[in-house]
Amino acid sequence: MIYLSRDNPTKKDSPKVTETKKKIRDAFITLYAKQPIEKIDIKSITDLAGLNRGTFYVYYLDIYDLLAQIEASYYEHIQNNVKYLVRTLFYAETVEEEFAVNFFRENLAYMKVLIATPGKSKLPEVLKEKIRDAMRDELKKQNMYNEPQEERMLEYLLEYIISAHFGVITRWIANDLDLSAVEIISFLKSTFNKICD
Fold it and tell me: 10 Å Cβ neighbour count for 110?
């Protein structure tokens, strides 16, 4: 089923609209963390958000549209930052704590549901695909895996690296960011370098 977003990307929401949408989204994520989407109704969301049902329909067609809009907002963030993360793995001597910490800390409840809980969202597959594309580009820039037989092996190498790294990030999110972003990214970087040497 395809949903058209009611969000107008060229129009900036007023602070009141932003706050209302945040209440609805936060209430939904709280419920979605505990139960399947099929068991969530709009009344439960709006009751938890302290709003009336009509307010929900001003911004969303239904619960699936709400989820799609939440995913779309994180998809945009992923699009904007994947290349930076991959270049950090390849080239950076140091890791910027602020980059990762701010995003993950501010969005932890969402990340736990959308990234760290299997089957709740399409975001993990989107994220893996974007990382795979960015890593493939960087490896090719370094003239690695350019022969046809190497190209086939590259896909297996990418799958191995991405699955392992994604597993580490998922565990980190599930553990409430118990290590610093620098520790996690440094661990991923050192592991990545060992694999690629």
Answer: 23
Burial grade of 38 (CB within 10 A; 0-12, 13-18, 19 or more): exposed
Residue 7 lies in a domain: no
- pLDDT reported for residue 10: 47
The alpha carbon of 50 is separated from its chain's Cα centroid by a whole number of angstroms, namely: 27
Q: Dihedral sign for Cα 86, 87, 92, 94, please.
A: negative
53 token code pair: 């049902």
| Number of independent structural domains in the chain | 1
Identify the DSSP state of 12: P
Nearest residue to 175 via CA among 121, 108, 114, 118: 108
8 inside domain: no
Taking the chain (197 residues) in runs of 10, the rounded mean pLDDT of each run is 43 87 97 96 97 96 96 83 76 63 83 92 89 85 68 84 90 91 83 75
C-alpha distance from residue 48 to each of 40, 43, 83, 100, 111 (Å):
12, 8, 37, 30, 20
- For residue 58, the domain's CATH number is 1.10.357.10
